Structure formats: C-alpha cells, structure tokens
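User: Design a sequence. Structure:
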C-alpha cells in the first residue's frame, strides 16, 4: 500500500507538471502528509490576564449606525480579560437620545463598564 501511494503521488506530480494544474500538487501533498499536523510550540510564554489588563488597551471604532454596537460590547465583555481598558468610539445616534444611548452601551459592556471609555 505505501508503494502504491508513492506511485500515485509521483504520477500526480508528473500530470500536474505536464498540465500545469495547481490543484493536483495540493492533492498529492495532502496524500503524503499526515492527517494530524504536528503540534506548534508557543513562541512566547503565556501571559496572565492581570498582566494583559495592565499592559493593553483595546480600541474599537464603529463607523456607522448599522454596526451592532450593543452586540459588539457584549462580545467584548465575554472575550476580554477582566480589568482590561477599552476605548469605544461610535457615531452619534440618529434614533435615540445621546445620553440614553450611552447608558445602553455601558449596560451592554457589563463587567467592562469600569474600564470603558466611550467617545461619540
């Protein structure tokens, strides 16, 4: 079976070279490589959430009213470590009072609220 795989791979490469088809070399590569890729060693050591919160500020800008600002802030509150600073810019709402909209944004930010800076 291994000899047959090699023969098929070599035949595929020859056909690919003759026909200049980019798909065939990729298929041959997939036949010859293992199903599970090798593990990738981290280049840098893991950083604790507290250290990230001290050293990083996340800046998010929304360009129009179509962007789902509330959903973005809810997602950020779940994805970012606690205590991280967030600067969030957004357009002045056309459909709502500016103060009421800011209140909605702060509510959506949840636990990020203390470290959240809103810039309309």
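Assistant: Done.
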């Amino acid at each position: 079976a291994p000899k047959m795989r090699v023969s098929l791979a070599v035949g595929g490469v020859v056909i690919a070279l003759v026909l200049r088809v980019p798909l065939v070399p990729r298929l041959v590569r997939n036949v010859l490589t293992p199903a599970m890729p090798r593990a990738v060693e981290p280049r840098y050591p893991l950083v604790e959430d507290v250290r990230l919160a001290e050293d990083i500020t996340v800046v998010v800008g929304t360009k129009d009213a179509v962007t789902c600002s509330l959903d973005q802030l809810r997602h950020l509150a779940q994805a970012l470590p606690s205590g991280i600073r967030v600067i969030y810019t957004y357009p002045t709402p056309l459909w709502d009072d500016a103060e009421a909209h800011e209140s909605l944004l702060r509510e959506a930010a949840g636990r990020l609220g203390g470290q959240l800076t809103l810039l309309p």
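DSSP finds five helices and three strands in the chain. Helices lie at 2-19, 23-32, 49-55, 69-79, 98-109.
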